Amino acid sequence: GFQPGRNTTQALVSVVDRTSRAFEQGEVIIGVLLDFQKTFDTIQHKIILSKFLRH
């Protein structure tokens, strides 16, 4: 996620470094990648608003 004072390159280097160390130590590596960039561009906003207004 977003971390103040860090950029995408630093985050990627950190992931590669941690993954490499875990691999060298024989640890299990699990990665979960989610991309929500365009999620709300594809929904019908009226439906979402009506659900929020009901509660």
Instruction: Give the termini distance in whole angstroms.
Output: 29 Å
Tally of domains:
1
Low-confidence stretches: none
Return the average pLDDT rounded to an integer: 83
Portion in helices? 40-55%
How would you describe the overall organization of this protein?
The protein has helices spanning 8-24, 45-54. It has 55 residues and is mainly α. The protein has one domain (8-54). The longest helix has 17 residues, at 8-24. This is Reverse transcriptase domain-containing protein. It comes from Capitella teleta.
Quick structural overview:
This protein has 55 residues and is mostly helical. It has one domain.
Defining key terms:
elongated, mainly alpha, 55 residues
Helix-strand blueprint:
Elements: H1 8-24, H2 45-54
